[in-house]
Design brief:
With about 100 residues, the protein is of the alpha+beta class. Helices cover about 40% and strands about 10% of the residues. It starts with 9 loop residues before the first helix and ends in a 7-residue tail after the last helix.
């Protein structure tokens, strides 16, 4: 991509991956987003800290739940929810598990 920037942040890309498949592995997210597994772990931890994401341990795997009612952080977009953005990008409502 010319200029090296993307329209959505890595945080948004990770959320999109987890909304599409709540059981996806960090390794697979990293490959799809184009970042390291360590970066994905950091993003997941930040999203958990902000209560946008919850991690549920299932045996040796994790399942994630996205809080689609969470408001976006910036004042310019605070009238929108995470679910609004996911619905726009995914073309449908995110899966509710």
């Amino acid at each position: 991509m010319a200029g090296g920037w993307t329209f959505l942040s890595n945080h948004a890309h990770v959320l999109i991956c987890l909304a599409r498949d709540p059981r996806t592995r960090v390794r697979d997210i990293a490959a799809e987003v184009g970042i390291t597994e360590r970066a994905v772990h950091k993003i997941v931890a930040q999203l958990e800290e902000e209560a946008v994401l919850a991690r549920i341990r299932e045996g040796r795997r994790n399942q994630y739940r996205v809080d689609t009612n969470a408001a976006l952080r910036r004042p310019v977009a605070s009238h929108c929810t995470v679910g609004d953005v996911l619905a726009l990008v995914l073309g449908e409502s995110p899966r509710a598990d």
